[in-house]
Known about the structure:
Distance between the termini: 38 Å
Radius of gyration: 18 Å
Number of strands: 3
Amino acid sequence: MYLLTIRDGLHTRHIGPFDSPSQASEQLDQLLAQCSERANWQIHALEPPLSAAQGLQAVAERSSSFAA
């Protein structure tokens, strides 16, 4: 999954999610027509969320490394 971020001055817009970067790019062409010439954009790849058990295990491992 991919997320399109457009920054135009003080405004930041997050659009998506998209299944592919090409889909985000197609939407970008339409949205940039509404933005100023100085607008910045970026397409981000989203990571799948961890399951609750994996998240707790990762936190426990980090905590034990700080205690040592």
